[in-house]
Amino acid sequence: MIFNLEGLTVYFPYEYLYPEQYEYMIELKHALDAKGHGALEMPTGTGKTITLLSLITSYQLQYPHSCGKLIYCTRTVPEMEKVLAELKVLQKYREEHVEKGKEEETHILALGLSSRKNLCVNPKVSEEGSRESVDARCRNLTASWVRDKAKEEAEEGDQKGTKTKTVLENEKIRKSNLCEFYEDLEALGAEAEVPKGVYTLQDLREFGREKRWCPYFLARQTLQRANVVVYNYQYLLDPKVAGLVSREFEDNAIVVFDEAHNIDNVCIEALSVNLRSQTLDAAQRNITTLNTRITEVKKTDRKRLQDEYERLVSGLANQGAISRQRGEDLMANPVISEDVVQEVIPGNIRRAEHFVAIMRRFVEFLRHELRAPSVVQTVPRMFIQKSEAGGGVDAKTLKFCYDRLTSLLKTLEIVDTEEFGALSSVADFATLIGTYDQGFIIIMEPYDERYPHIPDPVLQLACLDASLAVKPVFEKYQSVFITSGTLSPIDLYPRLLKFRPNVMKSLMMTLTRKCLCPMVITRGADQQHISSKFDMREDPNVIQNYGKVLVGLAQSIPDGIVAFFVSYSYMENIISKWHDTGILREIMQHKLIFMETQDVVETSLALDNYRRACNAGRGAVFLSVARGKVAEGIDFDRHYGRAVVMYGVPYQYTLSRILRARLEYLRETLQIKEQDFLTFDAIRQASQCIGRVIRSKADYGLMVFADKRYNSHDKRSKLPKWISNHMTEELLNLSTDMALTVSRAFMRHMSQPFSAGEAGKTLFDQQKVDEIARRMGYPGGCAVNLAPPTKRIK
User: Fold this and answer.
1) What is the strand order of the sheet 254-257 is part of?
2) Is there a contact between 121 and 212 (Cβ–Cβ < 8 Å)?
3) Rounded CA separation 337/23 (Å)
4) Most CB contacts within 10 A, which of 100, 127, 457, 470?
5) Percent helix, percent strand, percent coil in the chain, to nearest 5
6) With contact defined as beta carbons under 8 Å apart, do 110 and 226 qualify?
7) 78-107: pLDDT as tens digits
8) Has residue 754 got a pLDDT over 80?
9) CA atoms of 698 and 720, how far apart (whole Å)
10) How far apart (Å, rounded) are the C-alpha atoms in residues 742 and 739?
11) CA neighbor of 232 nearest in space, from 221, 248, 245, 222
């Protein structure tokens, strides 16, 4: 449908619109009109993605001069592909229904950007396996000095072998030692353009094979003129990546962080570094390798090192000592762009051998710190004072470690980041502590407190302030939206990220029938309370009652059931006890059992077999972990998830020193109480697990919170409203037998015939939205001939 939304012509590719989608669009438009930011929670399964795309691309079409590109950030590659697939549907609809004479204006260029591993079409590179190996192999074929050397060898071949080989043959030999896809793209330069359209990663690979162009660098080259860019959070939040990819984007761009319920953790991880003894051993070997390379270059090409020294004397920024060509983006500054130091490199590290000697001393100092017999906790300022006293390395030297290492690696013509990853981590650590004093803490732990008999020293530089990484995004871009289906309590996010939203709202889900049934089980049939609290989790009665819940659900719920536990160790302990007491055998009389492990391949295989069991009608139970890969990225829609059980409240490991330091920082700087944050974090993880079961309004499912603590108002008030509003009194404080009675009644109700026409009562059609527009004083309808729109599953 095409409709008028407060003066904006919106192209929406489906026949019907949910009321919450209409409300979501209004909130988005208000923020865009105000050139401000927003935080919006919209229930899962209500078409959040297509709503965002429809409104923002319509806004771009109507206000092309005041509204820049859409930067859509997702967490995973499947989510990215889903966004681009939705955008394809929308773009096709726009092109079919635009007014005559405006066809050209509706054409957009949209593409996704991912790692080299996901885009590479060169068989010699893509077969490498790991992402790091693919990156290193790619750089070994595309770095400027590698290409220059191959060109020189080809020219020598032209001169020496003119009688035996043609120039064309020598050029072919040269290309065989390089990446022919990259070479062909470089030969055309800016003339290599991607036609208007929407390109998924697969589309880019196919286009690259057809044109013989490198899809990865073609996508990087095309980002600037694209109307819509879809990529991972890291490309905008991690300074090491954002400095290479997103630096040149226009200020009036619109940024969307989708599934942003964990955005604060992503921001913190982007500015945190962990160093173990194995890392320092590898860094020591890297330094020895650099020394060897420097000695070799001194013998064969001393001028190269002298030229670098002179550039460093003049200043990096002015002389381009660390300028990068496309194939050489081996490192990026770990510091956010506005904090990058614009000064001359200190004199004591300008000479390559001097810098390597200082890095060796710093690594030795870090080794000494790792030998501490007990926990040491300090702030960057105090750590630097110890570094000056113990290693002779001051703050200014540390601040430039990244820049100096990058320059040296380029001078020595090294592009293998996999080989020098350990030294890069040390340089990141050094640069961050040399730059920041507030919002960071350094903790040295000689062992993991959960396994005190196993020595495993680790030096952790932990960022405590989530706003540091995202601050440049909010300051630079015109409008930034964080959105998710589980963003409650929503008012905490602006405080954590330190931004002021123009719009902030949690939307409800309109339902024709009650297709979700959240319930709280607080006790077993024996009336004993159940909980995953530390003092109760080993109780045999609690474990037995938890098992009876799953046995009862397996008997009465068709198809798939998903159960989430608070940790891997707790899940393994429960499963072991269930095996001993015969609970697993009882469950398997009704359904097969699969479980998530920490091995990605094993988990993928288990998921595949789980789906096959559900498809075959046998039914299955999938045992998983909150905060794991399955909880964050896998949907259990339709018959794959007719019930989901959350065993316990998934609190973080509260004895973690980094967590305790962050809690103290939040209390002192943002006045957020420790218990409030811990509960907020646990409930958002539980909401994410529970939300896996409802992925559309045609779906239905049972949501079981199996822990007495969920019965308290403090916990339930932090659940998304679209879940908590369905928690009526009769669904609270249930025993296991009462819960099973409720679940059977719910399933009987859901099995009744449901008329598609009933759903229309809670949907907006063309007539309804036109009526709303006229009531608000805007002309309803459109002056275009509407063909039948794309049918939508209701």
Assistant:
1) 197-199, 109-113, 228-232, 70-74, 254-257, 479-484, 37-41, 501-506
2) no
3) 36
4) 470
5) 55, 15, 30
6) yes
7) 899 999 999 999 999 998 887 776 777 788
8) no
9) 20
10) 5
11) 245
CA 456/CA 445 separation, integer angstroms: 8
Residue 729 neighbours by CB under 8 Å, 6+ apart: none
Pair 702, 557: CB distance under 8 Å: yes
Note whether 746 and 556 are within 8 A (CB). no
Report the C-alpha gap between 275 and 263 in whole angstroms: 24
**Residues β-bridged to residue 377:** 443
Mean pLDDT of 542-560: 94
pLDDT greater at residue 793 or residue 336? 336
Q: Evaluate whether 402 touches 345 at the Cβ level (below 8 Å).
A: no
CA gap 660, 673 in Å, rounded: 12
Q: Which amino acid is at 37?
A: H
CA distance 6 to 773: 7
At 2-47, the pLDDT tens digits run: 999 999 999 999 998 999 999 999 999 999 999 999 999 999 888 9
Task: Say which residue the tokens 């609809």 belong to.
Answer: 93
3-class secondary-structure state, position 260: helix
Residues 6 or more apart in contact with residue 63 via CB below 8 angstroms: none
* Non-local CB neighbours of 163 within 8 Å, separated by 6+ positions: none
Q: Look at residues 214, 226, 420, 217 and name the one whose alpha carbon lies nearest to residue 326.
A: 217
Beta bridge partners of 459: 275, 444
- Give the number of other CB atoms < 10 A from CB of residue 63: 13
**What's the token pair of residue 614?**
């559900």
CA distance 416 to 156: 27
Helix (H) / strand (E) element for 633: namely helix 629-633
Judge contact between 552 and 545, C-beta under 8 A: no
Helix axes 263-270, 467-476, angle to 10 degrees: 100
Cis amide leading into 788 (omega within 30): no
User: What is the rounded average pLDDT for all residues in the chain?
Assistant: 87
CA pair distance 624, 593, nearest whole angstrom:
11
The token duo for 6 is 């407060």
Q: Are strands 376-378 and 440-447 parallel, antiparallel or unpaired?
A: antiparallel
Collapsed DSSP state (helix, strand, coil) of residue 644: strand
Question: Which residue carries 């945190």 as its tokens?
Answer: 272
- Looking at the chain, how many residues does it have? 794
How many other CB atoms are there within 10 angstroms of residue 94's CB atom?
22
Q: Are 658 and 462 in contact (CB under 8 A)?
A: yes
CA distance 43 to 695: 9
Q: What is the mean pLDDT of residues 380-388?
A: 92
Q: How far apart are CA 270 and CA 428, in angstroms?
A: 11
Tokens of 493: 């996010």
DSSP state of 466: T
Sequence-ordered strand ranges (E) for 676-744: 701-706, 734-735
The C-alpha atoms of residue 283 and residue 419 are separated, in whole angstroms, by 10
State the amino acid at position 337 in one-letter form: S
C-beta of residue 326 within 8 angstroms of C-beta of residue 415: no
Q: Are 645 and 706 in contact (CB under 8 A)?
A: yes
Q: Which of 114, 79, 402 has its CA nearest to residue 245? A: 114
User: How many H-runs (helices) and E-runs (strands) does the chain carry?
Assistant: 37, 21
Beta bridge partner(s), residue 375: none
Question: Within 253-400, where are the H helices?
Answer: 263-270, 277-300, 302-314, 316-319, 352-370, 380-391, 395-399
C-beta separation of 532 from 648 below 8 A: yes
State yes or no: pLDDT of 631 exceeds 60: yes
Task: Please report the pLDDT score of residue 243 as a whole number.
Answer: 83
In 3D space, the residue among 774, 765, 793 whose CA is nearest the CA of residue 2 turns out to be 765
